[in-house]
Automatic annotation (TrEMBL):
Protein name from the UniProt record: Nuclear prelamin A recognition factor-like protein
Taxonomy, superkingdom: Eukaryota
InterPro entries to which the protein is assigned, alphabetical: Cytosolic_Fe-S_CAF, Fe_hydrogenase, Fe_hydrogenase_lsu_C
Example GO molecular function: 4 iron, 4 sulfur cluster binding
Amino acid sequence: MAFSGALTLTDLNDFISPSQACIKPVEQADKKPEEKYVGAKTEIVVDSSGSYYEVASEGAVQLNNTSAQIDNEGSTGTKLEQAQISLNDCLACSGCITSAESILITLQSHAEVFTFLDSNKDATEDTKKLPVLSIAPQPLASLAASLTASACSSSSSSAAPPITPHQVLRRVQAFCREALGIAHVFDTTFARHLALREHLLEFEERKAKDKLGGEAAQGQLPMLASACPGWICYAEKAHSEMLPFISRTKSPQQVMGTLVKEWMGKHAGFTPDKVYHVSVMPCYDKKLEASRQDFYNDVYSTRDVDCVITTGELELMMREKGWDLAQPVPGELDEEAEAVNAESTALPELIQHAGSSSGSYLMSIIEHLQRESAVPLTLSSKIMRNADYEEFTLTVAGSGKTVFKGAKCYGFRNLQNVVRKVGRERGVRTAGGAAGRLAGRAGAGVGRRLKKAGGGGDEDGGKDKQYDYVEVMACPGGCVNGGGQLKPILPKPQESGADEEGYPRDWVQTGVVLPENETEMGATTAPRADVDPPSVAAIESGVVMNAKWGDKDWTRRVEAAYWLDGSLEPMGQAGVQCDEEGSGGAEIKMNGGPHDLDAPPPLGPSAARGRAMGGGREGPTVSGRAGGRVNVKSDATSAERRRSAQRIRKKRWAEKLADRVLKELCGSDDDAVKNRQRFFRTEYHAVESDVGGLAVKW
Ligand code: SF4
């Protein structure tokens, strides 16, 4: 079975480092009477056939040893049963790949896209499909950061204009059109806009039920974000007691699937099965998400998203086709044209939603509450364990009454803490694996164990206020740091064979780089990214081989690229300074407040800590932070004002189009609510697995 060349075990390391053991929780269905040991210590030994035995170590006497056997070394021991791990047990921790997952991933690879495109060329009118590609903003940011870093490392000057996501989108569109024959390429931010609207609606529904108290309030709040399939997969398999709290709103990828197949396809005269939808995402988990049964259209026997590829796979496709993404394409700096008539299905591009680079879910709720509030609200934030776990509180200015408490929680370890906290607050029994599953098995019983339903408003300054919402993401740093993103870039030597100062150097001889395919130990196997120095080819391609996934500095650079506004000006003005490492760290200027989308401040320590936002519709200017360094200017230049005006126009366009999409898809009759559920919401499944636990049915 052939994997995509872009896929390696380290690529899959989304949120648990490879050094950690598989944490699949084990539930022992028919527990044996406890064996007692005197002297306490036992050891596990492996015999020549690979069987495992538990043996008493020296001085220990094992009692109750009913199944003792003699191993090949003559020790007495108990043969241990081999653990069976199937796809159903997998927590998508990326510590291993099961064969079933490998089939799924093989079916969703860049090779599969090439195969489809080849076969589609020769297809008859009846079987021909319309290829469509959608790309998330995080892959665009990853590509932009990578191109900027490469440009900086090869630039002789100290500054180079940053490549923006807008430019990258145009270049990807050109690549798809000219090299692949895909004419329809969109970014997914309009789908995210729809998802955020639905998400707000769901939050209001849950809040209303929570207010009722009693049975109706059970499992409603805190609402937990649902856009991250890594988190969903983990919750379904290890913490099913959390499922009632998870938002039912589809992720932007799946909303894009609905948009492409059900709405745009219809306008273009294609049924869903006649559209082939490729999605470019920052992680491998999105492949598993697209494969869920819930997103399969039984009527047309097709999926909302036919194939998911990662940023790395898209880059691989370009390399295989000999396409240089560093080359500008005509018109890439032009302003985006707006839809000229009401019938147009053109989508607004790269809509920036203020908040986080992982979807801005929490900030969209905060903004919504501020907009709807009759009194001014103050937003404050507090970093908990680290920057990836931060609490946000909205209080009534003056009285200090807390009206909302939310958190951003990224990374697997933070996520486990939040699960425990929510369980404690809501009286749900949580424990990793079996205990959690047992709690969840009761299904409706989740609610029965609730200590106290309803978060209510507090007048204690928010100290004991329960969470109303948590933006949960499995990757540390969020989606900009997804496992499918590009690796950090190492500055190239100035010219082959010369060092930084221009002196001739033999890089192989000096041990700086390795001959191609040779590891540190001299073996001719693939280099190990974590220990081996980069190869000549790697250096020449500008890709660091010893760079670790999750490098914080690199994540900040991708984050900075994410927030670059590339819609109007070449970014030379803002000026990305090439730093010592040769990678571009953006210095970005942003103005505005949360209400007009004029500034997209990511949730972060400096973004909200200690700042106060006015309530109602009169939010004062807010300092924002994009990645590493942001300067906020109060005296906006005309270019900035133009960009700001364009963002507002785009937002209005998006709102208007969203209304139209909803009306056309869902109708306005009695079936509207049912249709809305069908097109924009989903379900989660915790089911019995054959090993006695609960697991996901893909
Ligand atoms: Fe994928 Fe984002 Fe979740 Fe990471 S945080 S697994 S990139 S959806």
